[in-house]
Amino acid sequence: MRTAYREDLDSFAHDLIVMCDSVQTIMSKASHALLGASLQAAEEALSMADELEEIRVRCEERAVELLALEGPVARDLRQVISSIYIVEDFNRMAALAMHVAKAARRRHPEHAVPERMAGYFTEMARLVTEMAEKTRNILIDPNADAALMLSDDDDAVDDLNDHMLVMLTQREWAYSTREAVDVALLARFYERYADHCVNVAARIVYLTSGLNPDEYLAKRERDEAEADIARRFEELERQFSHRRE
């Protein structure tokens, strides 16, 4: 019975990685469609909706089965609860990526963003791709410290989003209102995608430690301070020992 239970937990964890891979692929194709005005890439991204929904439903069914029939406790319970939230985050990330693909398809054969703004979106696409890959890595090897590092990447995406919004409101904006709206919405899609990566990271922190990120950081600082004090005392003891000798 326990063997089957452990296999179900492992299968759930594997499904999360598969779902993460699908989300990454959708965003990669959507970004290619956006930056390259590629109708084919946009259609390929949108065609993955059914595949993703199948994984989402399977994860949901696994979660219900594990909670209702197995009664997990401690870390296993945290794994199931965290996984339920992670599935929802991935589902939202996929929806945001598909919004990008739809925008590219809607403006085809033209580019959905002005040439002047393409560099910003190229950088945004690079950042969220790296964040998604780091998210995948912490799903494979859950690590609270590695998970917390995604916040730095998210800050970079936020900065780009804020900068573009400022550009849209300046008199020097040389493009149409429609293009301004497109840029604002697309930047928001990428920014929210990055936020959901951070949400997944927070679930991993909870899974590994039972704490939310702020609590974990506070505990880590206390532990580091206590370890530093212990090292200082050890050094003092060694110094006094040498003097007595």
Quick recap:
The chain has helices at 2-36, 39-46, 49-70, 74-107, 115-140, 144-148, 150-168, 177-209, 213-244. The protein has 245 residues and is mainly α.
Helix and strand succession?
HHHHHHHHH
The total of beta strands comes to: 0
Give the CA-based shape: flat
Kindly name the structural category.
mainly alpha
Radius of gyration: 23 Å
CATH architecture assignment name of the largest domain: Up-down Bundle
Which CATH top level class of the largest domain fits? Answer: Mainly Alpha
Low-confidence stretches: none
Q: The CATH topology of the largest domain is what?
A: Methane Monooxygenase Hydroxylase, Chain G, domain 1
Tally of contiguous helical segments: 9
Strand content: under 5%
Helix proportion range: over 70%
Number of domains: 2
Average pLDDT score = 91
Topology summary:
Blueprint: H1 2-36, H2 39-46, H3 49-70, H4 74-107, H5 115-140, H6 144-148, H7 150-168, H8 177-209, H9 213-244
Helix pairs in contact: 1-2, 1-3, 1-4, 1-5, 2-4, 3-4, 4-8, 5-7, 5-8, 7-8
GO biological process, one term: intracellular phosphate ion homeostasis
InterPro entries: PhoU, PhoU-like_sf, PhoU_dom
Function: Plays a role in the regulation of phosphate uptake.
